[in-house]
Specification:
By secondary structure, the chain is α/β, with parallel strands linked by helices. The two termini are 20 Å apart. It has a single domain, classed as P-loop containing nucleotide triphosphate hydrolases (Rossmann fold). It is built from ten helices and ten strands. It is globular. The structure holds adenosine-5'-triphosphate (ATP). The site of adenosine-5'-triphosphate has 12 residues, from strand 2 and helix 1. GO terms for molecular function: ATP binding; ATP hydrolysis activity; phosphate transmembrane transporter activity. One of its GO terms (biological process) is phosphate ion transmembrane transport.
Length: 257
């Protein structure tokens, strides 16, 4: 497997294996994820894409049967180290899911929720965070006059951008996205893709996608997973135009998956 790296690695994944009970879902993964880049994770259903990204913020451990071996370093800190709090990791490494999942609260409360949990109480400070986060998620103009309406009243694409704003409000370093546009219509999808391109100036993004055109449009690096292994990781242009491994070529040309 090739894993070229330019720029600083924010994550270093070393000999990572993960099992759900007896199911060996991730196999000997070695990978570096570069800062301020978009890394796409592609591969057929069940190959371990979601499991992999959910391991980066230890969200996968909500499944009781999970066990892992190997290591993941986030900014040179071992994320499995007993003295590293998972809550701290998740503050730095936020996540956006496949289906928009706003809370049944106002738009404002959805975005202010994380900062409030982190102890911010002053209304003026919260107001500023909410505005900045909604602007960062490219939805401020659409919602600024209805901040106190329930987020459920928004379209799916708007809800997904509220979820991105909710993630930005706690000032993460990395944003993990697990098929964030698969439940959206084409126009909302393009808006979220534009947003991802904008966000990478300030954040590092790892995105799972089923959609190879999407990976080609928005990512700098692409990792192709198959049966829990990384078959190939490279610059996105190179991986899609001139893959090194026959299995990558077969997948990207639609021969399977
Ligand atoms: N909660 C779980 N308990 C047991 N096995 C699981 C669990 N979640 C995933 N798996 C198994 O781990 C493997 C990888 O699944 P994962 O969801 O990571 O794949 P994926 O590539 O994201 O798939 P998809 O594209 O269909 O979402 C599969 O064999 C799956 O059945």
């Amino acid at each position: 497997m090739r894993a070229t790296m330019d720029g600083n690695a924010i994550f270093k994944v070393e000999d990572l294996n993960l099992w759900y009970g007896n199911t060996h879902a991730l196999k000997n993964i070695n990978m570096e994820i570069a800062q301020n880049q978009v890394t796409a994770v592609i591969g057929p259903s069940g190959c371990g894409k979601s499991t992999f990204v959910k391991t980066l913020n230890r969200m996968v451990e909500t499944v009781p049967s999970v066990h892992t071996s190997g290591d993941i370093k986030y900014r040179n800190q071992g994320i499995f180290d007993s003295n590293y709090l998972v809550e701290e990791l998740r503050t730095h490494v936020g996540m956006v899911f496949q289906k928009p999942n706003p809370f049944p609260k106002s738009i404002y409360e959805n975005v202010a929720y994380g900062p409030k949990i982190h102890g911010i109480k002053k209304k003026q400070v919260l107001d500023e965070i909410v505005e900045k986060s909604l602007k960062g998620a490219a939805i401020w103009e659409e919602v600024k006059d209805r901040l106190h309406e329930n987020a459920y009243g928004l379209s799916g694409g708007q809800q997904q951008r509220i979820c991105i704003a909710r993630c930005l409000a706690v000032e993460p370093d990395v944003i993990l996205m697990d098929e964030p546009t698969s439940a959206l219509d084409p126009i909302s999808t393009l808006k979220v893709e534009e947003l991802i391109r904008e966000l990478k100036k300030e954040y590092t993004i790892v995105i799972v996608t089923h959609n190879m055109q999407q990976a080609a449009r928005i990512s700098d690096k692409t990792a192709f997973f198959l049966n829990g292994e990384v078959i190939e990781m490279d610059d996105t242009d190179k991986l899609f135009s001139n893959p090194e491994d026959k299995r990558t070529e077969d997948y990207i040309t639609g021969r399977f998956g």
